[in-house]
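Please decode residue identities from the backbone states below.
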């Protein structure tokens, strides 16, 4: 495809010269501005993720084994997805801030201004994707933290103690001085282990 160039309606004036200088300045500084923005976003989002992780370590449960098995699996899956998403986001932000680790053959290099403009477009696109994925990673971390806070605790082992007075079954609260305190549906009950005729560990009380 070819285009025919024709002169403008009149000679170029000071306004046209200023517009050309502004355009040249924007093209010359476009890539550095994108790179500076990428570095700022990378540092800010990194601080946000660090604050979320620190907050969870201070306020949340430190062991997902304390959670119900199903909830522990959910937390593990959320953390795994957050790790993958965060790694991809970090790579995109690094790419936006520092470019690709690649070298183009000299014979295929476009003019410098055109190459810088194309690189600025690619860096800006990588920056936008990196920001979106970092925020998604933060949302996944918040969901995982919330699950560790509000998820049900894992059920404690139950003990069935049979004595001449009857059978008591419940979660073990503590054992001391030959007596076991069991948490039953009706509250805490103390069972005399010395007088027990049968002691059995059960998964759940009937």
């Amino acid at each position: 495809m070819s285009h025919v160039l024709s002169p403008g309606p009149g000679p170029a004036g000071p306004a046209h010269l200023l517009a050309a200088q502004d355009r040249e300045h924007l093209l010359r500084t476009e890539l550095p501005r994108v790179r500076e923005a990428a570095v700022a976003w990378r540092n800010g989002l990194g601080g946000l993720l660090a604050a979320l992780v620190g907050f969870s370590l201070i306020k949340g449960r430190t062991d997902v084994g304390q959670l119900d098995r199903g909830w522990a699996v959910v937390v593990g899956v959320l953390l795994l997805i957050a790790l993958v998403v965060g790694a991809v986001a970090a790579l995109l932000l690094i790419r936006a801030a520092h470019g690709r680790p690649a070298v183009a053959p000299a014979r295929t290099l476009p003019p410098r201004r055109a190459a810088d403009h194309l690189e600025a477009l690619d860096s800006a696109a990588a920056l936008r994707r990196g920001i979106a994925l970092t925020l998604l990673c933060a949302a996944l971390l918040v969901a995982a933290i919330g699950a560790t806070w509000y998820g049900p605790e894992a059920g404690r082992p139950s003990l069935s103690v049979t004595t001449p007075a009857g059978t008591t079954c419940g979660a073990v609260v503590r054992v001391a001085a030959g007596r076991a305190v069991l948490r039953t549906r009706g509250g805490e009950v103390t069972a005399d282990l010395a007088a027990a005729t049968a002691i059995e560990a059960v998964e759940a009380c009937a």
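Observation: The mean pLDDT is 77.
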